[in-house]
Amino acid sequence: MSDVFGYHAIQLGLSDIDGLAANRMPHRWLALDQAELPAAQDQAGNSSKTSERSILGCDYAALPFPEQSIDLVVLPHTLELHRDAHACLREVERVLVPEGRVVVCGLNPASLWGLRQRRARLLRRLGLGELFLPDAGEFIAYWRLRDWLRLLGFEVETVQFGVYVPALRQSAWLQRFRWMDRAGARWWPIFGAAYCVTAVKKVRGARLLEASWKAAPSPQAAPITIANKTRNTQGND
Question: pTM of this prediction?
Answer without folding.
Answer: 0.77
